[in-house]
Design brief:
The complex is a heterodimer. By secondary structure, chain A is α/β, with parallel strands linked by helices. Chain A is 45% helix and 17% strand. Chain A contains 14 helices and twelve strands. In chain A, α3 runs antiparallel to α4 and α12 runs antiparallel to α13 (414-432). Chain B folds into four domains: 4-199 and 347-456, FAD/NAD(P)-binding domain, CATH 3.50.50.60; 206-345, Elongation Factor Tu (Ef-tu), domain 3; 461-552, Arc Repressor Mutant, subunit A; 568-623, DNA polymerase, domain 1, CATH 1.10.150. The longest helix of chain B has 23 residues, at 461-483. Classes of the chains: A alpha/beta, B alpha+beta.
Amino acid sequence: MWTTDTIAALATPAAAGGIAVIRISGADALPIAERVFSKPLSNQQGYTAVYGRMAAQGKTLDDGVALVFRAPHSYTGEDTVELSCHGGVYLANRILRALYAAGARPAAAGEFTRRAYQNGKLTLTQAEAVAQLIAADGEQAVLAARAGLDGALARRLDNEKETLLQILARLSAWADYPDEDLEPVEWETLCAELSALAESLGALLRGYDSGRLVREGIAAAIVGKPNVGKSTLMNLLAGCDKSIVTAQPGTTRDVVEETVRLGKAVLHLSDTAGLRETADPVEREGVSRARRRMEEATLLIAVFDRSEPLTAEDISLLESLRGRAAIAVLNKGDLPAAVEEGQLRPYTGYTVTLSAKEGEGLSALIEAVEELSKLNRFDPSAALLSNARQYHAACRAAEAVGEGLSALRSGFTLDAVTVSLTDALAALLELSGESVTEAVVDEVFSRFCVGK
Amino acid sequence: MALYPMEEYDVAVIGAGHAGIEAAMAAARLGCKTVLFTLTLDGIANMPCNPSIGGTAKGHLVREIDALGGQMGVAADATFLQSRMLNRGKGPAVHSLRVQSDRAQYHLYMKKLLEHQAGLDLKQAEIVDILRTDGRVSAVVTRLGGVYPVKAAILCCGTYLEGKIHVGEVSYSGGPDAVRPAIGLSESLRQMGLPLRRFKTGTPARVHRDSIDFDKLERQQGDTIICPFSFSTTKPLVNRVDCYIAYTNEETHRVIRENLHRSPLYSGRIEGVGPRYCPSIEDKVVRFADKKRHQLFIEPMGLDTEEYYLQGMSSSLPEDVQIRFLRTIKGLERVRLMRTAYAIEYDCIDPLALTPALECKAVAGLFGAGQFNGTSGYEEAAAQGLMAGINAARKVQGKKPVVLSRSDGYIGTLIDDLVTKGCRDPYRMMTSRSEYRLLLRQDNADERLMPIGHEIGLVSDETLHRMEEKYRLVAAEEKRLQKLTISPDPALNRLLEERGSAPLTQAVRAAELIRRPQIGYRDLLPYDENRPDLPAEVAEQVEIRIRYAGYIARQLRQVEQMKRLEGKKIPPNFDYHAVTGLRLEAIEKLSAVRPEHIGQAAGISGVSPADISVLLVALQEGNQ
C-alpha cells in the first residue's frame, strides 16, 4: 500500500560543492529532522530558519541551517524540512543515513516532484519542467525550463483548449437541438477558427525543435580533408587538448567527441577523420565513420585550409554541404590567403575565417552557430514543449485539428468534424495532464532524478 | 393496518410507465414470475408530457432498446401519427428519429401487450412499503395491506413519489394527469438508508384544436420515406397528421415578466431542481432576456381527440396568466385551454447510490429505473427499465449482471453517467454525452446490440439471423465496391462538377468515389452494371461505412484506449482511506461511487487526474 511516509534525499547534486541541501518531506518530516538536528523544530512556523548542529549517534557531524515549511505551503505540499550543511558527498551521506535511521526513507526518483504534482502544487507540464531544470545545461535551457515551471505552456494550452471547447459546445448544440432556432454553425467561421488553431499548434510544434536544441544541445561534426586543422579547432572549442594534433595528415582515425558551450549553444562536437581515399584499412574505417557522423549530425562545421587552393576533395565536400545546416570555416587565417570566403558562398550561407592555432576569429564562429540554430532569436520565456511526450501529444492534437479542417473543407458532415475535434481536445487534455492515462504518469515520473 | 399474505413472485415492478413496462416485460420474458403494480391501469404507458417518442439521442435509445429486445420501438411504430428523421444532412452520427404518437393508442397497445405476456401479472395497487430480510428485499406491501413475497423489486415510480403539483399560487399533493401520488413509499426507502431528494419537472397546457388558427402557423410535415424504430417493423408506414410551429413575441415575454412574482419557482415555493435542458417558458424568458422570440411546436395528442400539445411552453404560472400569454401568440389569439400547464415536484434517488446494474448498493435485490433514478424522458426511462428488468431477473437466477459500457451504446453511456457522475438536475440524453458518436449511430444499433440481446435471451434466433444476414450483405457489397473500378465518363464528370467535386481523369475504385461527401452510393448506379438489388438499409450502411471509415477507425482507437483503463480493475472492497495521498474530496467520492475500474474512477466529478495517478500508483504497489 502506498502511503505518504516521510522521505529524504539530497536536493543538490551529489558532488563537491559549497553547500549541500538535504530535503525531508512527509507527515513526520519535523519530528524526524529533530532527531538529527540539535534544536527543536516541531513548534517552528513555516518559512522560518533555525541554526543548529547535525548529529548522528551523539556525534556532531556538522553545523548548519534548518528551513521549515508547513503543509500545504511547501514544494511538495507536505511538511518539509531542508537542512543546509557544508558540501561534500561524505558528510551529506552521513547526515542522510542518520535521517533514515530516524525514520525517513530514501526518496525514489522524482518522488518529491511526484508528491508536489499529486498534492496539486504543480501541473503535469510544470512537473516536467522541473525534471528539465534539473537536467538543464546551458543558460538558455535554464531559462526555458523556468518558463515551463511558471506555467507558460500550461497557459498557452488553456487558450487552445478553451477555443476547442467553445467550438465543440456550438457543434453539440447544433446537433442536439435541431428544432430550436439557434444561430446556425457558419462554415466560414468554423474554417477560420480551425485554421487559426492549427496554425497556433503548428507554431508550438515548430518551437519544439529550437527548444530541443536548447535543452539537448546540437549534434555537430567537424569535417574536412586531412590536415586542415580540424583537431586544432576541436581543441580550441573544447578548451583542452582532446584530439591529438600532429602535422601528419590522417592522425585522427576515429571520432573524438566533446560537449562544449559555444555562446548560447551547447554543441555535442565530433572531430572526425580527414576525408580522403586511403589504402590504410584503419584510416579507411575512420573515414567511413566520419562520413556516417556527417550524415547524422545536425550541424556541420566544414574546415578548409585557407592557405592552399581548393582541391577536388574540398569541392566534393562543399557540394555535400548544400541543403544542410553547415558552416564553412577557412582555417589558418594567420597564413597568406589562397582561398576567399566568396568561393565558398555558393555552397553555404555561413562562412567564417579563423585561426584555430592562434584562437582568432572564434566570435565569428559563435555568431554563425547561433544564427544557424536560430538560438539568437530563441525566446526562452515563450511556451515550449519540452519533451517527447508533450511533443507527441501536441502532434496528435495538431493532426486531429488538421484532419477536422480538411474534413470540413472537403464537404464532410459536421459529425465527422466533431470526431476529430474531440480527439484533439483529448490530446490537449492529456498534454496538460488533465486527462490521465497510466502511460503519462509512468513516463513523467520515471524520468526524475533523486532530490527534487 | 392489518397485513395479509398474497401470492409470491420473483420480481415485483412498481410503476407501469415507460420504465416499468420494459422492466416487467424483460423479467417475465426471461422466465421470472413477475408482477407489475400501477396506481391505475388506465395510466399504463401514459405520456404525461409530450405525445412523442424519440428525438435527438433519445431516438438512439429507442433503437438500442429495440435491439436488446425491448418494447418501446415496436409500440412507437404501431401507434405513431407523424415521423421525422431529425438532423438529416448533418451526418449519420446525429440522425435521430422522432415520432408524434397517438397517446391513447400507445397506452392501449402497451396495456394489451402486458396483459398477454405469460408469467406477468398486472395489478392496480399502490405499494407503500418494502420489506427486507438480511439486507435483501423480501416483500412489497400494498396500501390495502397485501404482502407479496418477492426476490427482487424494481422502483419505476416516475414523478408520483410524494408528487406535488404547482400552478401559480396553488399547490397540492398529486401525480400527473389527475392520478393520485404515491404516499408513504418514500419513508420506507429512507428508512433503508436510500438517499432521496427532490426534483421538479413541468408540462405545457393542452388546448382545443378549434381554438387554433392553423393558417397563421408554419406547417411541419413528416418524412416522405419513413424509417421505423424497430428492426422487426416491416410493413410500410404513413404519416397521418401535421405539426405546426409558432413563435412567442415581446408581448408574450412582457406578460410573463410582469407575473413572475406569481410563479412558485420564483417565489421559492418549489424546492426541487428542474431540468436545465427543458426549461419552462418563464425560465427561458428570464435567462435569455435578449432573445426576441421563442419557438413553440403545436402537436396533436391523438386521432380521436381534439387536444393539442404546446411543446416548449411548459409553465407553472397561474392559469389566468397562462391564458393571457398564450393569447399574445400569433395563431393562438382565441386559444382555449383544456388542461393547464403545471410543475410537479417528486422524490427520486441520488443515482450514485446505485450500481452499474441499477441495483441499490444498500439493499440487495432492490433496483431503480427512470425518473426515480433522476432522469427525464420516456426513452431514458425505458432504457433503464429494460436494463433493470434484465438485471433483476439475472439476480434472481443467480447470473452475473449485464452492464453495457460507454462504447456499447447510449444506454451504457446513460447508466455510466448516472452511477458515476450522478446528476444535479433531471438527466436528459444528448448525442454530446457520448464520446463515440460516430460508432454509436442509431442506424447500427441492431448490429451493436442484437447479439447481446440474443445472449440475454430477449432477441429470437430468427431476428438475430435476419440482422446477421443484413450485415453479411453490407460486408459483401462493401468489398465489391472496394474492387469495382469506375472509368471517367462525361455524364459522371458533369455530375461531379455540379456537386463541386473534382472530375475523374482516370479510373478509380467505386469506394474511393463514395468516400467523397458529394457523391452517394445511389449516384453511381448508372456506372455499376452488376450492382445487386439491395434493401435501402443495406445501401445506407454500405455508404456510411465507406465514407466514414477513417473517422470510425479514429473512434475505435479511442475505444481501445478507454478499454485499457477499464481493464484496470479496482478491488470491490478497496480502502480509499488507506491511500493517504488522495485528497479528502476524492476519498469521499470514490468511497461513495466504488468504481469498478480506473476508467469509471476517472469519470467521477471531483476526482482529479492527480488523484487518479495516486490511485494508479497505489493499485500498482498493491499488486507487487
